[in-house]
């Protein structure tokens, strides 16, 4: 088992209120050699005609990852730190089960390569004690990588939420979404 | 000179812009670089720290520099992608010369230099020294900015030297000098942290200064209230506590009205006003009639919101006021700036922790570059070329006779007018793309066509350089060592990551050789950039922008040094005015009365809509670099006409309709982008593109009488449907500046 310095105290926090839609995260993510110039993080306007509000989607690194559960080739591995890795390239058969199953719409199929690719919490960086590239460059820190204590101290008016109810399926994630104080779960009926 | 040597399509084919993309697995060596060079971004005034990966003398990628205290690794998309300007297929790798019917062909340095010098001599001998002009720019380091100022006066011996900061910082510079006697942001960004109220006027921080957003949010986490003054609902304004959607041109009315409300409610710091300022009585007298109804009419902002802003500002114990080109690009740009400074001074909240004020400098070295003398009225240390003492001191530093020091020359746009009048016949330019950046650019193009000789020092064939006779192949930001001064007044170090490719040379060496060929080589003998910096330190000594106590080592050891730094043991000055000694002759801060006046071209029944211009997050200035980087072009490929649905409805305009926009200067077509995030009486076009896509074909060339900045932010236009939808072809080719 190779030694890693993955810091289990660190967590990922997304605050879409702060997102300015600049796409620095997408550009930086795509620069990683393992990503083949494709971004694993996605920024989209909600409705540009009404507002400049953007959403930003990273892999949520679910505690019980739906993508891994539905993979027929057992290509998606969740490690002991809770990081859900991108598809093992020697196993992935490009069936898109995970693409369809993920409640957050995270995995994407790269048609040329016939493989799924998704965010892996910048494992090449986080495993040596660095922060994910997107959270490092995010100019507004809408993406933040740090400890729960830090975020509670720095942003006292919001609260990290990592529990979602999709219809009747409860999904708990490693990645947190910052919400107004008092929120404990996000409901997607 | 004359028209283009060959059709523009051929020039684009040969020299671009072409979009560059990184290879799928990254550039060779990006996962195992030879070295990581710490440096700063080549784009905006925030000067984010960044590391460049180098392999085999080529840039292979970037890495965040988390230890640099300003940005701690944070970057905007331009910073992330900037490395792609290196190794670019469009890069000019040797001097090139114009050949009729062919375009531009490579030539030798000897031929290019001797032709340049012989033309300079011919033109100056025939028409006088001032008939050869120079235009410079402030993305250049302090060393180069200084050397160009010296070059123009000592080697070229012309008064007509100006720079692209004329389109950027001169209104703020003018206003700050009138109020404080010194031109620098009064505080570093650290003072945002516990400001109770942050007021941002005319600055789309979210798109033009993205990394500053973190500081603003940090302050908000600490309880700060954010007020944003902008005709558009920019991303920063989306969550602001108060967004004041000012009509373009209404800024001095707004700040005058706020001042009156402060006076009426006695939200004033009388101690500060009485002991440390002058001019208060005349200033409040000038705004005594600016009541809420008047203010609503002249600003286009509901009066309840104006009052609310004044109350938030007036009652705060700490605050920070920031502004940028949105209020400065006006024929009353200096007045707008002064009206902001007036409400800061009235509050007394300056010169102490979390009490801040500043303009946000736009270009990478907009701060340093506007201090070291490549402006038509300036000498190093932010000295004045018409001041006898200043002339004497600098003449001594330069080793020339004071009587040989030229006087004040023409500013950038005024030089264009002089070309039309036949007074300027030749030009040399560096770091400036006037055909895209100046207003009324049909007039600018006609001027370029009239020049007898035009030589450009550049790395790419910019839209302006297409009209040159010779391009001297210069260096990119990462190819020459030097210093720049960030928007908060911090002098930082730019390091050379790679050497100039092919036969390109460092800009500094080009200038030094030209000076030598013009007979002044002994005054331009600098073996290294540090030697230039050491002369600059002496030249700036005693001026308001005093760099004497700064050295390269001190910068490296301290992650930058804030000027003024007068002696070697001085640590630098992040926060100004702590001793309440201002740099005005009487040592006090000056209130200056500002009476509102309208923009030079207001809408009327013939031209009923207000046109304003600005920027997008993925492009930088005239786009010579960023329109050559594939991903940045793809993010926002063509300039769009932002228009509110209510205004669009009046014309029957739908999204993606191709609309003809016409002003008294020209007309051009843009696809409509129908959005609610803009005023109903105003349309917006970003200006980073050239040719038929240029917004500056439409803008007005009226200048602020003091600063000579053009009024980019307001003019009057007509809208007309063409009946066509904007095409995909147009979208795909916009980045090339075709005709």
TrEMBL record, chain A:
The keyword tRNA processing appears for this protein: no
Q: Which residues form the 4Fe-4S ferredoxin-type domain?
A: 10-38, 50-81, 83-112
**Could you identify this protein by its name?**
4Fe-4S ferredoxin
**Which species expresses this protein natively?**
Galbibacter marinus
Family matches, as InterPro entries: 4Fe4S_Fe-S-bd, 4Fe4S_Fe_S_CS, ET_IronSulfur_Cluster-Binding
Q: Which UniProt keywords apply?
A: 4Fe-4S, Iron, Iron-sulfur, Metal-binding
What CDD domains does UniProt report for this protein, alphabetically?
Answer: DMSOR_beta_like (cd16369)
**GO terms for MF:** 4 iron, 4 sulfur cluster binding; metal ion binding
């Amino acid at each position: 088992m190779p030694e890693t310095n993955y810091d289990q105290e660190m967590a990922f926090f997304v605050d879409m209120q702060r997102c300015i839609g600049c796409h620095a995260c997408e550009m930086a993510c795509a620069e990683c050699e393992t990503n083949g110039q494709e971004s694993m993080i996605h920024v989209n306007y909600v409705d540009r005609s009404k507002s400049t509000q953007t959403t930003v989607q990273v892999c949520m690194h679910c505690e019980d990852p739906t993508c891994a559960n539905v993979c027929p080739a057992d290509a998606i591995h969740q490690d002991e730190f809770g990081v859900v890795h991108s598809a093992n390239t020697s196993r992935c058969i490009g069936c898109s089960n995970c693409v369809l199953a993920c409640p957050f719409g995270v995995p994407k199929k790269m048609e040329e390569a016939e493989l799924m690719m998704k965010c892996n919490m910048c494992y090449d960086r986080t495993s040596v004690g660095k922060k994910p590239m997107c959270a490092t460059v995010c100019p507004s820190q809408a993406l933040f990588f740090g400890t729960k204590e830090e975020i509670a101290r720095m942003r006292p008016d919001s609260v990290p939420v990592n529990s979602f109810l999709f219809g009747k399926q409860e999904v708990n994630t490693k990645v947190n979404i910052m919400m107004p104080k008092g929120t404990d779960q996000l409901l997607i009926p | 000179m004359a028209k283009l040597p060959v059709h523009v399509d051929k020039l684009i084919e040969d020299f671009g812009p072409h979009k560059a993309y990184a290879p799928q697995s990254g550039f060779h060596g990006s996962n195992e670089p030879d070295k990581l060079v710490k440096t700063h971004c080549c784009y905006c005034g925030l000067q984010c720290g960044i590391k460049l990966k180098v392999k085999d003398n080529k840039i292979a990628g970037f890495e965040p520099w988390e230890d640099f205290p300003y940005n701690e690794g944070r970057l905007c998309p331009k910073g992330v992608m900037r490395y792609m300007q290196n190794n670019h297929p469009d890069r000019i790798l040797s001097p090139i010369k114009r050949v009729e019917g062919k375009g531009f062909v490579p030539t030798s340095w000897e031929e290019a230099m001797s032709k340049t010098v012989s033309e300079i001599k011919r033109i100056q001998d025939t028409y006088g020294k001032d008939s050869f002009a120079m235009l410079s720019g402030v993305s250049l380091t302090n060393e180069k900015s200084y050397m160009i100022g010296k070059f123009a006066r000592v080697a070229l011996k012309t008064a007509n030297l100006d720079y692209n900061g004329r389109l950027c910082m001169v209104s703020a510079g003018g206003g700050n000098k009138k109020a404080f006697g010194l031109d620098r942001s009064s505080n570093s960004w650290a003072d945002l942290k516990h400001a109770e109220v942050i007021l941002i006027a005319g600055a789309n921080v979210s798109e033009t200064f993205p990394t500053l957003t973190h500081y603003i949010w940090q302050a908000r986490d600490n309880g700060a209230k954010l007020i944003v003054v902008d005709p558009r609902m920019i991303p920063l304004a989306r969550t602001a506590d108060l967004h004041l959607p000012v009509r373009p041109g209404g800024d001095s009315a707004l700040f005058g009205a706020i001042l009156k409300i402060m006076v009426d409610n006695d939200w004033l710091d009388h101690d500060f006003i009485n002991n440390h300022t002058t001019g208060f009585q005349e200033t409040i007298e000038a705004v005594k009639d600016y009541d809420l109804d008047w203010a609503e009419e002249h600003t286009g902002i509901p009066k309840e919101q104006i009052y609310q802003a004044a109350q938030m500002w007036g009652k705060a114990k700490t605050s920070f006021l920031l502004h940028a080109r949105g209020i400065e690009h006006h024929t009353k740009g200096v007045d707008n700036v002064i009206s902001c400074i007036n409400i800061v001074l009235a509050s007394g909240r300056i010169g102490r922790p979390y009490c801040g004020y500043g303009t946000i400098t736009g270009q990478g070295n907009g701060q340093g570059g506007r201090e070291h003398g490549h402006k038509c009225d300036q000498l190093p240390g932010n000295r004045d070329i018409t001041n006898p003492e200043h002339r004497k001191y600098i003449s001594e530093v330069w080793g020339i006779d004071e009587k040989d020091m030229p006087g004040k020359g023409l500013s950038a746009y005024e030089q264009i007018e002089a070309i039309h009048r036949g007074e300027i016949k030749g030009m040399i330019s560096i770091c400036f793309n006037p055909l895209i950046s100046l207003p009324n650019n049909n007039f600018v193009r006609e001027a370029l066509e009239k020049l007898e000789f035009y030589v450009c020092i550049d790395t790419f064939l910019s839209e302006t350089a297409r009209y040159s006779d010779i391009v001297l192949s210069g260096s990119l930001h990462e190819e020459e060592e030097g210093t720049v001064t960030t928007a908060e007044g911090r002098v930082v170090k730019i390091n050379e990551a790679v050497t100039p490719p092919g036969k390109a040379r460092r800009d500094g060496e080009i200038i030094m050789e030209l000076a030598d060929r013009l007979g002044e080589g002994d005054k331009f003998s600098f073996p290294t950039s540090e030697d230039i910096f050491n002369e600059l330190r002496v030249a700036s000594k005693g001026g308001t922008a005093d760099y004497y106590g700064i050295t390269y080592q001190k910068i490296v050891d301290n992650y930058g040094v804030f000027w003024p730094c007068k002696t070697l043991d001085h640590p630098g000055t992040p926060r100004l005015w702590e001793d309440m000694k201002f740099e005005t002759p009487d040592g006090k801060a000056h209130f200056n009365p500002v009476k509102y006046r309208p923009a030079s071209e207001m809408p009327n029944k013939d031209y009923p809509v207000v046109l304003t211009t600005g920027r997008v997050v993925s492009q930088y200035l005239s786009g010579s670099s960023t329109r050559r980087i594939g991903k940045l072009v793809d993010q926002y490929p063509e300039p769009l006409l932002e228009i509110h649905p209510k205004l669009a409805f009046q014309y029957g305009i739908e999204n993606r309709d191709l609309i003809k926009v016409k002003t008294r200067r020209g007309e051009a077509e843009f696809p409509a982008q129908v959005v609610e995030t803009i005023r109903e009486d105003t349309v917006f076009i970003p200006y980073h593109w050239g040719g038929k896509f240029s917004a500056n074909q439409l803008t007005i060339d009226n200048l602020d009488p003091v600063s000579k900045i053009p009024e980019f932010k307001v003019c009057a236009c007509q809208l007309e449907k063409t009946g066509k939808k904007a095409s995909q072809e147009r979208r795909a080719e916009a980045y090339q500046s075709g005709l």
